[in-house]
């Protein structure tokens, strides 16, 4: 493995394209998450985010044996949920939102992107007389679609009170608006359990304790019941997002997710929708102690993901200029480092041409994101504790939408 010291200092974010930055100052309470939820082994630091002139260090670690990547030093749940409720759920025109949603529910073609999942549901024999549940149901598109397939007993769980209310009004859906892990939600769900189907799309990467989350899901089902889960795939995830996108507290390889599911009494029955960007699994509840768990995987995920970051952050080439631009794709794990000209006009023209060429080559309409970076700050004066270091001018900053 490349033992070279890799890293850079972020001077400022340039094109972040509708993303915001959030400073994590010394007042933000930090909790530690040092172990893999799948196999309980210690995570190995792969990158450290360093702020406040070296006093602040936030580590990102990976489980070398199963490929679970996580923020080891992570803002406290209370602080984060407070941040989301004040900055995320900005109430737009709720009345208008209900109208728009009602219209798209009526039109029937609202869930085209859910088509593959719907086809999968049709293939599996699921008991329609019992309750089904979607955790993180948003505006309820999938629930509404399943309702049309004859799943008349359905319930959604949605963290955002305001989105839940819109979905209730527009679709007449039954939605519990609190966090799935909370005891109040659990006791309400227990009354409807066991669920013949639980569906959960892009939620597990946001929760603090994925093993605990899956254990709660498992507690709401009986043998033979189905759980459909999808998360971003670490293998194809955008490197910069793996390191700096705040809402994702972790990323999973398929092996990492499989391990957590198996530990809680599930076995995989379909993974046909899994691809480089997304892991999509249909699992079935079997006996809690399975006869045979999957073997340990023979991949060294530390090296594998290190290689990914080296490519995704443009470390493959030597960069001699001290100030340059780090760019990355919004939709695919592709990134690099490019020249930055101190003349504003020259830089503008250069960047416009450069990004057009990349977008053309990758046949994408999504513009690149970028940050201004410089070389590491005196990397030789102290003992490094991880392969990649990202320094910040002041406090560490995360990105969010
Ligand atoms: Zn692991």
3D structure, described in words:
The mean pLDDT is 90. The protein is globular, with a radius of gyration of 22 Å. The protein is of the alpha/beta class. The chain has a domain at 94-285: Rossmann fold. The protein starts with 5 loop residues before the first strand and ends with a strand. 29% of the residues lie in helices and 26% in strands. The strands form 4 sheets. Strands 13-6-5-4-19-1-18-16-17 form a 9-stranded mixed β-sheet. Strands 10-9-8-11-12-15-14 form a 7-stranded mixed β-sheet, sandwiched between helices. The chain has a two-stranded antiparallel sheet with strand order 2-20. It has helices at residues 77-87, 94-107, 115-123, 141-148, 161-171, 183-190, 210-219, 239-244, 254-263, 301-312, 344-361; strands spanning 6-13, 20-24, 30-32, 44-51, 56-62, 68-71, 73-75, 132-135, 154-157, 175-176, 197-201, 226-232, 250-252, 266-270, 278-285, 323-328, 335-339, 369-374, 388-392, 396-400. Strand 11 (197-201), helix 7 (210-219) and strand 12 (226-232) form a beta-alpha-beta unit. Helix 2 packs across helix 5.
List the helices and strands and how they pair.
Elements: E1 6-13, E2 20-24, E3 30-32, E4 44-51, E5 56-62, E6 68-71, E7 73-75, H1 77-87, H2 94-107, H3 115-123, E8 132-135, H4 141-148, E9 154-157, H5 161-171, E10 175-176, H6 183-190, E11 197-201, H7 210-219, E12 226-232, H8 239-244, E13 250-252, H9 254-263, E14 266-270, E15 278-285, H10 301-312, E16 323-328, E17 335-339, H11 344-361, E18 369-374, E19 388-392, E20 396-400
Parallel strand pairs: 1-19, 4-19, 8-9, 8-11, 9-10, 11-12
Antiparallel strand pairs: 1-18, 2-20, 3-7, 4-5, 5-6, 6-13, 12-15, 14-15, 16-17, 16-18
Helix pairs in contact: 2-5
The protein binds zinc ion.
Zinc ion is lined by residues 36, 38-39, 41, 63, 65-66, 68, 256.
């Amino acid at each position: 493995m490349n033992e070279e010291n890799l890293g850079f200092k972020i001077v400022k974010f340039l094109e972040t394209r509708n993303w915001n930055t959030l400073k994590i100052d010394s007042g933000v309470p930090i909790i530690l998450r040092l172990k893999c939820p799948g196999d309980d082994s210690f995570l190995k630091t792969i990158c450290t985010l360093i702020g406040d002139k070296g006093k602040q260090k936030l580590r990102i670690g990976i489980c070398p044996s199963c490929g679970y990547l996580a923020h080891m030093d992570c803002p406290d749940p209370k602080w984060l949920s407070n941040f989301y409720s004040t900055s995320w759920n900005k109430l737009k025109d709720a009345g208008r939102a209900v109208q728009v949603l009602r219209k798209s529910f009526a039109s029937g073609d609202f869930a085209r992107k859910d088509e593959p999942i719907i086809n999968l549901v049709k293939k599996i024999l699921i008991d329609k007389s019992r309750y089904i549940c979607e955790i993180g149901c948003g505006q309820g598109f999938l629930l509404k679609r399943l309702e049309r397939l004859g799943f008349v007993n359905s319930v959604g769980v949605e963290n955002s009170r305001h989105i839940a209310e819109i979905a209730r009004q527009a679709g007449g859906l039954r939605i519990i608006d609190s966090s799935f892990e909370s005891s109040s939600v659990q006791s309400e769900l227990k009354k409807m359990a066991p669920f013949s189907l639980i569906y959960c799309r892009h939620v597990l990467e946001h929760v603090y304790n994925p093993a605990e989350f899956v254990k709660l899901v498992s507690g709401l089902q009986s043998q033979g019941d189905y759980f459909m889960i999808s998360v971003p795939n670490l293998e194809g995830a955008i490197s910069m997002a793996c390191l700096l996108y705040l809402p994702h507290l972790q990323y999973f390889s398929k092996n990492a997710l499989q391990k957590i599911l198996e530990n809680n009494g599930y076995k995989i029955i379909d993974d046909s929708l899994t691809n480089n960007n997304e892991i999509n699994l249909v699992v079935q509840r079997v006996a809690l102690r399975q006869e045979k768990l999957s073997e340990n995987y023979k991949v060294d995920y530390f090296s594998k993901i290190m290689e990914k970051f080296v490519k995704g952050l443009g470390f493959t080439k030597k960069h001699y200029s001290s100030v340059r631009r780090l760019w990355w794709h919004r939709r695919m794990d592709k990134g690099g480092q490019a020249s930055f000209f101190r003349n504003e006009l020259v830089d503008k023209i250069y960047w416009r041409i450069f990004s057009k060429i990349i977008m053309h080559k990758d046949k994408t309409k999504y513009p690149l994101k970028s940050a201004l970076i410089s070389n590491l700050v005196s990397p030789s004066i102290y003992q490094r504790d991880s392969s990649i270091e990202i320094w910040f001018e002041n406090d560490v900053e995360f990105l969010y939408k």
